[in-house]
Design brief:
Layout (H helix, E strand, L loop, with lengths): L9 H8 L7 H7 L8 E5 L6 H12 L6 H4 L10 H4 L4 E6 H7 L5 H16 L9 H12 L3 E6 L3 H5 L4 H11 L4 H6 E8 L5 E2 L2 E2 L5 E3 L13 E2 H11 L3 H8 L2 E3 L2 E5 L1 H10 L10 H5 L1 H6 L4 H9 L4 E4 L13 H11 L3 E6 L2 E5 L3 H13 L5
Parallel strand pairs: 1-4, 1-7, 2-3, 3-4
Antiparallel strand pairs: 5-6, 8-10, 9-10, 11-13, 12-13
Helix pairs in contact: 1-3, 12-14
Amino acid sequence: MGIYLNPGNSGFEEIRASYYVDKSGLISLINSTIGTKQKLNLISRPRRFGKSFAAQMLCAYYDKTCDSSRLFDDLNIARDEQYRKHLNQYDVIYLDMANILGETDKDKLIPFIRRKVTEELLAAYPALKADESFSTTLVNAAELTNNKFIAIIDEWDIPIREAPKLGNQYLEFLRTLFKGSGTTARIFAAVYMTGILPIKKDGSQSAISDFKEFTILEPGKYAEFTGFTEEEVQRLCDIYHMSFREAKTWYDGYFFDALHSMYNPYSVMCAMQSGKYKSYWKKTAAAEALLTYIDMDEDGLQEDIIKLISGEAIEVDTEGFENDFETFKNKDDVLTLLIHLGYLTYKEEELGRGIAFIPNNETCEELSKILRQDGICV
């Protein structure tokens, strides 16, 4: 087992060691894309909505260097007819971008990834012919083993958010790997990326156009895996002898297509384990950075936020947002980012336009706290 190649199943084993809400149906969706034109998928959702848990689950399921049957045989995925076909059958490239960015200088990020993955490939396959071209090295590895890779990239957008000057170089690196060409098809069986933000726009289009994106605005078939459903929270409340009504008030309110109730999974589990309902929201630097734009009060933004905190819904145009933390042309862009961060939820009424509102007590409390720190009366 390695860090970047075939990390094993210990992460998911720890998750299974405590009470686990079965989200293994996600694997069926990935399996259905393997070897197809739909194999490049990006799922974006707020922090603390289970992105890393899902990544650990996928590593444990696909990694061919371990036997994960005992971790999955009692889960929903085991009833899928494709379950055994893909279980522990692939080399997995796993990139935790938050961890990687902490391991190297920002301007050395791309060489670091290439070097570390190549080193682990050579350790696993001494006969591998490495090349100056990272893509060629991966092609050589896939041909040597007669086995394509599953790539799992967790928090893909960390470099975009925390090292914006690196953004173009980083996007070019991803383009090279995942541009949908014949080379990409020779390397990857499937790719699963997670992040807070959708892929940054290049003009009016995504900069990596071959990915199928499932965002917090349009989660599509991944909606039920975005958080905890009402039924799942009801079961948790029964197990932990907690009030379901209070759980709903504190953590419900996210609206995804046909799913009218979706809960923040991190906060729900914290409440169950501590036996106390309160805010477990982790304040982000990104949210605090928005105060600069709120202070500017573009187009009456402060008034709209005060309306939101008082329980009103407001109209938002989400189409113009460029999927970064720097480019805000108007108040709609700021409000759209608050949706991606999870402080607001969104109900589409027509393409690109809908209403936004604060979903629950937890997010209302945290958003109010941020504004009070800046001296804005709420």
